[in-house]
Amino acid sequence: MTARKATNRDEAGGRNALAALERNSSLLTGRTGLLGLLIPELPALPPGDEPLVITEHAGVAAGLERRGGCRVLFGYQAPETDQGSLDTLVIFVPKARDTLNLYLSLARYLLSAQGQVVLVGEKREGIAGAARQLLGLAPDAQKVDSARHCQVWTARLPGASERFDLSQWLQWHEVACAGTQIAVAGLPGIFSDGRLDEGTARLLESLAEIPVGGPVLDFACGAGVIGAWLQARSPGQGPVDGVDVQAQAVFCARQTYDRNNANGTIVASDGLPEDLGLYQAVVTNPPFHSGVRTDTSMTEAFLEQVRRHLQPGGELRLVANRFLPYRGLIEASIGPCKVLSEDRRYTVYQAFREKPARGRDRSRVR
Questions:
Q1: Are residues 298 and 282 in the same domain?
Q2: Is 135 a domain residue?
Q3: Does residue 138 share a domain with residue 28?
Q4: What pTM does this model have?
Q5: How far is Cα 182 from Cα 174, in angstroms, rounded to an integer?
Q6: How confident is the model at residue 252 (pLDDT cuts 50, 70, 90)?
Q7: Is the pLDDT of residue 192 over 80?
Q8: Is the residue at 3 inside a domain?
Q9: 62 and 82 in one domain?
Q10: Which of 131, 166, 201 is the C-terminal boundary of a domain?
């Protein structure tokens, strides 16, 4: 549900923010950290220790680890040894206001007593609103530069009185569909936090009417709604594995599974890991937005990969906004595709990987 690749807009905005930061490299003093980086690139930093880079994006984390020259933390559960370990922490403005609140709380935990935060971001990504949030916590915050459609702010934050604990940011809500109810975990920045989105509801309704066989994989699993719901509805369903690119989603999915006594392995990955096994069914509500802009690149890449993770005769069940051009892509990758349900906004597709010629099931598309 929540997986999201770094898009062209993310890359352009990320490079603009890095360029604005490099214009003000004199601010990056002592032990430095970067929080919320959306692209696997580092700014030109003054000589010194390798920076700590904290990112919610599994692809960015993997790219930085391959690149080297920094210490990478995927997600926001910083170890105790990092408390007060930084003199400067750069925060790249996130899209969600609640996420910035989380960032600022983590910054207070990571910064030394005399450390400073550097806030940088594009105007179109909400730097003005983010600066107001910063001023609410640190009234002496100052804007030090405005360049490349970005602003750069600095501030000293009040110190943290206790260890930063991501679980304290968890919120729980109930989700019900087709007579089955589960508890779902939420964190700032996660997709559809606090509610069941319409697309996933349409997918669950189709799964209630036409169940899938196991083993099952939920791609872009988000907070683990589909896997936990499937197992709550049919206790004999068996484990449902999940994949998501976002650290908050992986954390929440594991919490959701624990709360609902669901089974399955939740994996952080930018796309389908090559070492995944074979599944009888892959279900997904893939994302298609970068901000307000339509971007189907992640789903297109997924459809190119998913066939090799389906057992012969295995099923793909996908829900998407009806205007998105997925039917042809599904048929090109897997085989004949059927529309199971459709309304004004959403379409649920079903396709089966063909079986070997011997004993071939010609009724695989019902």
A1: yes
A2: yes
A3: yes
A4: 0.89
A5: 6
A6: very high
A7: no
A8: no
A9: yes
A10: 166
